Amino acid sequence: MNQRKSWPKGVPETVDFPMQTVPENLIASTKRTPTRIALIFYGKEYSYSQTLRFVEQLSGYLQSELKVKPGEPVLLFMQNSPQFIISYYAILHADGVVVPVNPMFKRLEVAYIQKDTNSRIVLCGSYECESVYPLLASGKVEHVIVANYREMADPNFDIKVPTSVVEPDTNVILSMGCNLWRDVINSLLCYQPVTRSARDLAVITYSSGTTGKPKGCMHSHYNVMVTAVGGVIWHKFEANSISLATLPMFHVTGMQGAMNGPLYASGTIVIMVRWNREIAAELIQRYKITRWRSISTMAIDLVNDPQIANYDLSSLEAIGGCGAAMPAPVAHKLKELTGLDYLEGYGLSETMAATHLNPPDQPRAQCLGIPVFKVKSCVWSPEKKTRLPPNQVGEILIAGPQVFLSYWQNPIDTEDAFVILEGTRYLRTGDIGYVDETGFFYMVDRLKRMINVARFKVWPAEVEAIMYGHPEIAEACVVASKHPRKGEAVKAIVVPNDLDKPPSPKKLMDWCKSNMAAYKSPTKIELAENLPKSGSGKVMWRALTAAERVK
């Protein structure tokens, strides 16, 4: 097996990643290209010097007014926006640690992460403020800074910030005891330079576990640098590149491919708050977008737009993404539209995005790619505890400089996440696949009990734990069901408390939607008199999953 034969032409095989902090990337890019446009948001453009100035002003407020301590976790709970990027870099500039929170999360989900990190500061959008306010009212959070996304857009631009993130009244936010982002950013408090090192903690990304309790993946500045810089080099990212940011930046793929990488390379980022295929096509055409990282569901949505042929997408030079495999018919349509291959990759929250990528000059469809710079990967048998030869199916293992430090305050799960094989400490991915003779990796199935809803990972135990809060549910078991566009969807088999007067599935689904993120919420609920159980009384979820697959 010789992976070097598959290495992309013109890409160095070894890279010495910069030993610097993430905010130093923005500082360096600003020194190189101060007047270059860094961010474009619904018609409003911000240069690198303007963006850095906002970061320094917010950093000064965090340091001087809120007394952020070195290594202190700060929650960042926002949609894609200039405010997200500025807040992310300001927290790191102030020597804090970014804890990105999925903006789709509801109150209980946010409360769990806040309690786990003991964060006293939250930066959020006004759309997300409702889920944060109870934490402020109860004293669990000391400071909340609220951003109005529309304030950084051009009000006269013909494409508007989505009404789905319409802003609450400013007076209401102030009455809650929150601070307005615009006031904070204009406070002009003095800031101190970055004092953290590349090996210090920078980001805690949350990845759910099989117990249903989300786990914080601790990443150093160096971890972040490895995949951000590596992606730039692999894809030959140029300074005049223009990226369309549609992937959510709270997630590692969007964070690295659509934010940190482009800013490191002095590129321009065109930001969308939420996905909309017509707006995405229009922005590609209008701004001559050169690079677009996405997920398969976005690509499927785009090619299925009946008007897509009316848009000029010829400026695109590279398209691709991670997550669920790209269906061959969709990849073919994309190739017809753009003349480009959709480059697939593979990574985890625990690896700060990609560890495997397809070579741009010889990509393969429905393939994870080959291990990138300094990454060692193999397939092993968990039962035999031995490495498997090519084309034999087993669990994918990963070792590399982007692998997370540990789970936040969770040494037991950290230990369980790794295995020593032939003298190397590997991360167990929980994904089942194989590697061929040329070093390309392929996914087959998942070892862990996880549902992949349009790239979002859903852990059944977490959904079940929330569903048990409904007074009419006695038991619940969550499994994956097939979905024509998202790949998988969430289905729940529910045993009602009162079998004679059961609640309607629609009523239960509506309750779920109001108590958890939409992608976690069951799209199907089946009522049952009982759940199959083993002799020890455990629910046999594998049997229910198998039954669903044959439908």
Structural summary, described in words:
- It is a single chain.
- With about 550 residues, this protein is an alpha/beta fold.
- It is built from 16 helices and 28 strands.
- It is globular and about 60 Å long.
- The two termini are about 40 Å apart.
- The model has no long low-confidence stretch (mean pLDDT about 90).
Describe the structure in brief.
With 551 residues, the protein is an alpha/beta fold. Strand 26 and strand 27 (487-496) form a beta hairpin. The chain starts with 21 loop residues before the first helix and ends with a helix.
Q: CATH homologous superfamily of the largest domain, by name? A: ANL, N-terminal domain
Kindly state the number of beta strands: 28
How many helices? The count is 16
Main beta sheet: strand number and arrangement? 9 strands, mixed
Q: Percentage of helical residues?
A: 25-40%
Overall mean pLDDT score?
Answer: 91
| Main β-sheet, spatial strand arrangement | 2-1-11-10-12-13-14-15-16
The end-to-end span amounts to 39 Å
The CATH topology assignment of the largest domain is: Rossmann fold
What shape does the CA trace take?
A: globular
What's the gyration radius in Å?
A: 23 Å
